[in-house]
Amino acid sequence: MFTSRLSRLGSIRSSLQFSRTFACSSVTRRTAIVTGAGQGIGKAIALRLAHDGFDVCVNDLPNNGAIVDEVVKAIKDVLSLVQSSVDELGPLNVMVANAGIARVKSFLELTEADLKEMFETNIYGVFHCDSIAAKQFIKQGGGGKIINAASIVAYKPFALLSHYSATKAAVRSFTQAFAMELAPHKITVNAYAPGVVGSKMWETIDEGMGKINGLPKGENFKRMVDNILMGRTSVPEDVSKTVSYLAGPDSDYVTGQTLLVDGGMIFG
Predict the structure, then answer these.
(1) What's the whole-model pTM score?
(2) Known active-site residue 164
(3) Which listed residue (164, 192, 245, 253) is catalytic?
């Protein structure tokens, strides 16, 4: 299930309390929810937003979303997650729907169960986070910001990641459509599209590809560098900087966009 880790907030806020004065906003207090914040990109986003002056409510999927039944229950618990954040931290300003999973599998071996797991986590999860956050923003008045996790595969799919690629393309489409509908409520909806990031997810992808193409552990990941103009793979902090921008006032006139953060692998 989704676990609202409000108890973790204290350690984040206390360790970064000095940086609250750096927040450039007319709002005295800003709050954000970051899903999938237990590791990797999600963790980097939560820490960056705390540094930016946000009070942050973090959560993650159990076992990184490995069990479908728990994922389904997690989606249903988003409402209580938002309510817990509002009760503990005050009005919600930003929702970062970051939680997601990736699996490597040949198209010819994919099953309906594989699709169900991927779609329930990566699409239904984003839908529920966005929908519930939007309703909360409208209830509060004054707008808000929704930020979704897409991927470079939303622009160009990868072989052996067809079902994952499909979900991220759906996230990009959701982001555009939701932006159109929510603009009258002064709610912006954007997404970030990471490339090849040194994270647990890419360790899983690298391992899965290695089982198929026979390359040793880490080699598939390393070979990606040849396709990156900046000459290196990404780190989670590269992505969190972009989310910081999307969550802050400098992006108030930006909506419906999926920003590539890939070092120049593809061009949108």
Answers:
(1) 0.84
(2) yes
(3) 164
Q: What is the pLDDT of residue 208?
A: 79
Tell me, rounded to whole angstroms, the distance of Cα 84 from its chain centroid: 20
Q: What is the pLDDT of residues 111-134, one digit of tens each?
A: 999 999 999 999 999 999 999 999
> Which string of DSSP letters, residue by residue, matches the chain?
-----HHHHHHHHHHTGGGGGG---S-S-EEEEESSTTSHHHHHHHHHHHHTTEEEEE---GGGG--HHHHHHHHHTHHHHHHHHHHHH-S--EEEE---------GGG--HHHHHHHHIIIIIHHHHHHHHHHHHHHHH-S-EEEEEE--GGGTSPPTT-HHHHHHHHHHHHHHHHHHHHHGGGTEEEEEEEE-SBSSHHHHHHHHHHHHHH-PPTTHHHHHGGGG-TTSS-B-HHHHHHHHHHHHSGGGTT--S-EEEESSSS---
